[in-house]
Design brief:
This protein is of the alpha/beta class. It is built from twelve helices and twelve strands.
Length: 350
């Protein structure tokens, strides 16, 4: 079957091709009668707008890249779903790229993959440095997710330090005092784990509890086996925690398994809280308390901000973007909340 063209729509509606184009682009100077006639013709013929051609006429491809460390980490998979949804609302296509936290791969993404087929990039970096981000001549517009590496870059994230402090305060409020941090790291660095560790230490200090460096249990990656191994290692070494602050839900789900295998009850013996509010935590036994970032808002704001930067680069502007849309880099903080479920339901050992 021959695909209908804009000239076919114009013929059926009894208008010019230019008028059809004006209706498709929602120009305001078309009468309601003409607009309705064109829309009826489009529906009758099954005409589809050629988005690729529209973008190319504007000097764009209509493709943005979402670049994340690992696609099979549930947080990034859920975030990708929200980004795709937001991009579709703006007639944009999303190319999803996995870096494996490799610096060379992240640099390639930052440079637009060495081609002109990507109009912009939403990047969650783990291996890049601030120096990498300063030297971006000729790179496409980029919005960073996660911790801020460079003040001169657009950035969208939750307040990880505040969120970890609130999670720790919740555990302290339950009467827990020996809190291990699964995935914890020296808090002088710039990453998400370091920011969350700073929040943990701030809550302890506020409560007048001395920080024990041995309470930080680093992991090689933030997956369930790593959480299970870190907790098993600590328990076998004589640790007797009454709570675990896990720096993502994958670590927390692994920790639940290790606690079960060591005969410890959750939350009666050990309370557990994670980060990210991934779907699996709502179905674990017990269900998992967690810090829930507003992933939909992260995606919406990141896509809106990237759209503005792409429009600025093309010399145009959009009205429905980030408030106070200015050219200076934006550091935008998205809301989070504590979701309290069964894994922290009891106030003391029983």
């Amino acid at each position: 079957m021959v695909r209908p063209r804009i000239k076919d729509v114009a013929r059926l509606a009894g208008v010019s091709e230019k008028t059809v184009s004006n209706v498709i682009n929602d120009y305001t100077h078309v009468s309601d009668r003409t607009r309705n006639a064109v829309r009826e013709a489009i529906e009758e013929l099954g005409y589809k707008v050629n988005l690729a051609g529209r973008h190319l006429r504007k000097g764009r491809t209509g493709i943005i890249a979402l670049v994340v460390p690992e696609l099979d980490v549930p947080y990034f998979a859920e975030l990708a779903r929200h980004v795709i949804r937001e991009a579709e609302r703006r007639s944009l296509t999303v190319l999803i790229h996995q870096t494996g936290a490799d610096r060379d791969h992240e640099l390639a993404a930052l440079a637009g993959f060495g081609s002109t087929f990507v109009d912009g990039v939403i990047l969650s970096p783990l291996a890049l440095t601030a120096d990498d981000l300063r030297d971006r001549a000729g790179a496409p517009p980029t919005v960073l997710l996660g911790e801020l590496l460079e003040e001169g870059a657009d950035h969208v994230a939750i307040d990880n330090e505040k969120a970890a402090r609130e999670a720790t305060e919740h555990l302290l409020g339950l009467g827990r005092r020996t809190i291990l941090v699964i995935g914890g790291r020296d808090d002088t660095g710039l990453g998400t784990a370091e920011a969350r560790t700073r929040g943990y230490r701030a809550a302890l200090a506020e409560a007048g509890i001395a920080h024990d460096p041995a309470a930080l249990l680093p992991v090689t990656s933030f997956r369930m086996p790593d959480g299970a191994e870190a907790v098993a290692r600590a328990l076998s070494g004589g640790a007797r925690p009454d709570a675990l602050l896990c720096l993502n839900d994958q670590l927390a789900l692994g920790a639940l398994r290790a606690l079960h295998e060591h005969g410890l009850r959750v939350p009666e013996d050990v309370a557990v809280i994670g980060f990210d509010d991934v779907e699996a935590g709502r179905f674990s036994v017990p269900t998992l308390s967690t810090v829930a970032p507003d992933k939909a808002a992260v995606a919406r704001i990141a896509v809106e901000l990237l759209q503005r930067r792409m429009d600025e680069a093309a010399g145009s502007s959009t009205a429905d973007t980030v408030p106070d849309g200015v050219r200076s880099p934006q550091d935008l903080v998205v809301a989070h909340r504590l979701v309290l479920r069964e894994s922290t339901a009891h106030s003391a050992r029983s």
